[in-house]
């Protein structure tokens, strides 16, 4: 077991494992809830498998004590590792949104969609093993999962993707945000408006709902704890981001030029992504542009 395994206790009994996503620390994580039974929130990519299992061992959580893998959504950086982890977690069920379940049973279309979205970065996303249908639990909006002293409630949270859930630990008021509140990297809040299904209106409605929960701490998959004030900040960031993409879209000859111009303008205003997150920002330009095209086509 690696001695330098990057585990941080973000709340008593809740640990954040740095999954070394994309080969860089501080980009993506997996949360481990030491309840009775235990659970994971998100699974990272398939490349994080050994790291997740080592973290369970470090925390002295037997593999058959993990009952749930709560997936905020089915994008590979959150769900790609679930299938391969199930082989080592014999009692675990994967909790997923109803709109994502079939893509976990047969991930071929999902993997193809991710390949199209991330392009040259695709090898960093690993693979995705199919998950047997009898090991999936389709969450209902508001459904609660008792984990001893923790009680985790699943919340429908569309916008980033139609198959997005957030998970709220009642009592302790911890909100596992997935990508519904964007990326929070080294203190920088970044938009996550990725293709193919970002929807601004649904995102803003989700943020209103999350604000109404009055959480004490936000727990970002990308990456770590943040203040509840980030919910309102993200709503404003989304509006500004989509407006910027729409304004510059008409002045650019092609998508690559649009990405360059949007990112450059955002950087001049202080929105500078740390490390490899530039690729996420470029993807978010494309997703916002696709949203605007769909909206125009519907009018």
Count all strands and give the number.
15
CATH topology: Metallo-beta-lactamase, Chain A
Query: The biggest beta sheet, please?
Result: 7 strands, mixed
Q: What's the order of the H and E elements?
A: EEEEHEHHEHHEEEEEEEHEEHHH
CA radius of gyration? 18 Å
The CATH superfamily title? Ribonuclease Z/Hydroxyacylglutathione hydrolase-like
What is the count of DSSP helices, taking H or I runs of 4+ residues?
Answer: 9
Q: Output the strand order for the largest sheet.
A: 1-2-3-4-5-6-7
**Percentage of helical residues?**
25-40%
Q: How many structural domains can be distinguished in the coordinates?
A: 1
The mean pLDDT is 93
**Low-pLDDT runs:** none
Proportion in β-strands: 15-25%
> Do you know the CATH architecture?
4-Layer Sandwich
Distance between the termini: 57 Å
The CATH top-level class label: Alpha Beta
SS class:
alpha/beta
What does this structure look like?
The protein is α/β, with parallel strands linked by helices and 299 residues long. It is built from nine helices and 15 strands. It has helices spanning 49-58, 76-79, 82-86, 101-105, 108-118, 200-212, 229-249, 255-268, 278-298; strands spanning 7-11, 14-18, 29-33, 38-41, 66-70, 93-96, 136-138, 144-147, 150-156, 165-169, 174-178, 183-185, 188-190, 217-220, 224-226. A seven-stranded mixed sheet has the order 1-2-3-4-5-6-7, covered by helices on one side. It has a six-stranded mixed sheet with strand order 8-9-10-11-14-15, with no helix packed on it. It has a two-stranded antiparallel sheet with strand order 12-13. The model has no long low-confidence stretch (mean pLDDT 93).
